Amino acid sequence: MPFDSDYKFMATFHEMTDSHGHTVVRCYVKGAPDVLIDRAAYYRAADGSAVAVTDANRPLATDANDRMAAGGQRVMVVAQRDFDATEIQGVKLVELVKDLTLLAMVGIVDPPRPEARTAIAECRKAGIRARMITGDHATTAAAIASELGIEGHAVTGTEFAAMSDDELLRELPDIGVIARVAPEDKVRLVQLLKRSGNVVSMTGDGVNDAPALKTADIGVAMGITGTEVSKEAAVMILTDDNFATIVNAVSYGRSLYDNLLKYLRFQMSTLVGYIAIFICAGVFGIAGGVPLNPLQILWLNMVVDIPIAIALGFDAPTGGLMERPPRPVGAPVLSRGDWVRVCIQGLVMTAGSLVAYQIGHDRGGELLGSTMLLTTLSLFHVAAGLLARDQRGTIFDRSAIPGTTQLRRYGTSLIAIIAVTAIGLLQQIVDTTSMTFNQWAACVGLALSLVVVEEVVKFFIRRREAPSRSMPTTLVGPTAVPA
Fold it and tell me: In what order do the strands lie in the sheet with 40-44?
């Protein structure tokens, strides 16, 4: 009889000779302690005799089971029963597994990986709650969960199945472990967590995990120990069967998304600046309504901006990224607050660039005015790129300095800004002219106004924000962690 989660044991039948020399069919059984203790009629004493199981001596087995389980051991009971060959003809095998003689209790130590506790703690800081859903005994599961730092009390699959959906939705925040579960319990848990507004990732390796893996937002199968059925049902496979890899994947995903946001904030703020500059130039008759010629726009977009965009796209992860709560489901890429800041940055760029044009026009005519506008706007873009790296932290912190590779890319943009006003050939192509030290200082000073405005905004954001850690993302799995 193969193991089945419905009856939680397996059995084999053998033709043997008993102690009296009679031919018998002997059934050996191994399985869950609570199940086989209930099916037992005798236990084997130290002298080899069979002692009847009574209410008085039953705690010998149950207390031993609880003691081992509380130590985090998975407990298995071994039992036997002898039959006459005629007794088992035409009878379902599962019906024969009763009136057993208990032989032994085996405590199996299956320790979690050393990095599992650290990974679960990192999940908690990131607003991700780990839950354990397992076939182990509730006491064993609770002990392992405590060792790993999984929060919440343990319930059995029977208790879980007996509760209504409304009751479970109220109780779920306090439940950290569900033990002795059936496959349908796993699916139900995933469905209820999703109904509660969670994004659910389910880990599993067995055939009976496949429905829950399919139901979860992100099904994660084990690549080494996982069955082919579980791998087909999952959307991600762990090639090392290591829970910490999931946390690393979350960190990597957050880094990618954060860098995408950096680029979008930079791109949108500079785009607002472009549009506003041309609108204001047309409305107020500045530079004949054409403050930048096509080659100057191409130079700014293709030569100055591309290194900045690459630097943002490949930037190092922002500090504290894994300590932020998850982004709410359905939240826009750029929030209303982001758009307000983007527009403020764009308007600062517009005002500063047009002031630079006016300064240059008053001191050297149309060509100098256009050059100072292009230079100031280019410097604004460099400042916007640096400011886009962190929406809360100050740019004057040492940790805000980009890495060496990224600094080279910002340096490339600065060299391009200087070259287009200093090299004769580029001056002729892009239609620029040389500038004095004072004119350069004016351009730099105007560009730094964006830094001042953003630092003031960040200061008030840091004062207003109170630390909060919601838990809208949940990881559940059929075992504590892949061991």
Answer: 9-17, 23-31, 74-83, 100-108, 40-44, 50-52
Average pLDDT over residues 289-318: 93
Centre a 10 Å sphere on the Cβ of residue 255 and count the other Cβ atoms it contains: 16
What kind and span of H or E run contains 51? strand 50-52
Distance CA 315, CA 320 (A): 14
Burial class (CB in 10 A: 0-12, 13-18, 19+), 59: exposed
Reported confidence tier of residue 469, pLDDT bands at 50, 70, 90? very low
Tokens of 17: 């000779």
Distance CA 364, CA 435 (A): 10
Whole-angstrom Cα distance, residue 144 to residue 111?
Answer: 8
Mind listing the pLDDT tens digit for each residue in 67-93?
A: 888 888 889 999 999 998 777 787 888
Alpha helices in 314-365 (DSSP H): 336-364
Surface-to-core class of residue 159, CB atoms within 10 Å of its CB (0-12 exposed, 13-18 middle, 19+ buried): middle
Question: Please, which residues bridge with residue 104 across strands?
Answer: 78
Tell me, what's the pLDDT at 476?
Answer: 63
Residues 6+ apart with CB under 8 A from 469: 125, 127, 325
CA distance 464 to 288: 44
Counting other chains too, the contacts that 224-227 makes at CB distance below 8 Å and 24 or more residues apart are 225/482
What pLDDT does residue 466 have? 56
* Cβ-contact 154, 147 below 8 angstroms: no
Which long-range contacts does 447-453 make (Cβ < 8 Å, 24+ apart)? 447/352, 447/376, 447/379, 447/380, 447/382, 447/383, 448/383, 449/348, 449/352, 450/345, 450/348, 450/349, 450/352, 450/380, 450/383, 450/384, 450/387, 451/383, 451/387, 451/395, 453/344, 453/345, 453/348
SS3 17: strand
The answer to whether 129 and 172 are in contact (CB under 8 A) is no
The closest alpha carbon to 378, from 298, 283, 459, belongs to 298
pLDDT range class, residue 360, cuts 50, 70, 90 = very high
Whether residue 433 is predicted with pLDDT greater than 60 in this model: the reply is: yes
Q: What sign for the dihedral angle of Cα 337, 338, 341, 343?
A: negative
Q: What is the three-class DSSP state of 469? A: coil
Whether 180 contacts 170, CB under 8 Å? no
Model-level pTM?
Answer: 0.75
| The pLDDT value given to residue 109 | 82
DSSP calls for 195-264: HTT-EEEEEE-SGGGHHHHHHSSEEEEETTT--HHHHHH-SEEETT--HHHHHHHHHHHHHHHHHHHHHH
Is 50 exceeded by the pLDDT of residue 470?
Answer: no
Cα separation values, 330 from 25, 126, 128, 265, 326, Å: 63, 19, 17, 19, 12
Residue 48: pLDDT band (50, 70, 90) is: confident
Specify which residues 93 forms β-bridges with: none
